[in-house]
Design a protein that fits this description.
The protein is mostly helical. The chain has helices at 14-29, 36-43, 49-54, 57-76, 85-99, 101-107, 118-136, 148-166, 178-202. The radius of gyration is 20 Å and the shape is elongated. The termini are far apart.
């Protein structure tokens, strides 16, 4: 267990250690209760180390968000290819969110971090390029189609499911079987799509 006594913080990999500690703290108490002192305690370093490296909580949140988009790209990018890559990428987004709840809690909260940070901008742009690129290749879409609706629908579905799961709303409704859950989501999408087509035909 880390000691509360001050320790020198000029050692290798400290920045990453502080980010890891901050993510763990977010998972434990949530973004609103994040404490620089608790981050330092978790990392086993002096209380001044987080401020020295990040300035303030906004700086730490910016680093977490940057890493979150990078992790999302690393998880989603390899499967978000081909005519069904958008669907596989949506499933991978859920995998990312459930595996990294602390990052997920921060990455889409621009009210917490410095939205114009250069490293964050690069990481976020890369993630959205994967999202829009995979949507453009979706099976059945004509060339040069406007994929805004596809992106909004798919992203909302994956993000909403991950949020419901992480907040404990689905624990008593679904078995924790990723393959079964994926099949249920796909079946639900198909049924909703058919209903929407039928509704359009009746108008």
């Amino acid at each position: 267990m880390a000691s509360d006594s001050p320790k020198p913080y000029h050692h290798g990999h400290l920045r990453q250690a502080l980010i890891d500690a901050a993510v763990a703290e977010v998972e434990a108490v949530g973004p609103a209760a994040l404490s620089l002192r608790e981050i330092a305690r978790r990392a086993g370093v002096s209380h001044g180390a987080p401020a020295h490296h990040f300035g303030d909580k906004a700086g730490i949140f910016t680093a977490i968000a940057t890493e979150a988009f990078q992790l999302a790209s690393q998880t989603i990018g390899p499967v978000a290819d081909g005519t069904y890559g958008f669907l596989d990428g949506g499933a991978a987004y859920i995998v990312f969110a459930l595996a990294h709840p602390g990052h997920f809690a921060i990455m889409l909260r621009p009210d917490l971090y410095r939205d114009d940070d250069p490293d964050l901008t690069v990481a976020r742009d890369e993630a959205f390029q994967i999202l829009y690129g995979s949507a453009a290749n979706l099976h059945g879409l004509p060339p040069d189609a406007d994929v805004t609706g596809v992106v909004l629908a798919g992203w909302s579905l994956s993000h909403g499911f991950a949020t419901l799961w992480l907040n404990g709303n689905l624990n008593d409704r679904l078995e924790p079987n990723p393959d079964a859950i994926s099949d249920q989501l796909r079946d639900g999408i198909i049924r909703i799509g058919r209903a929407l087509e039928a509704q359009r035909g009746e108008k």
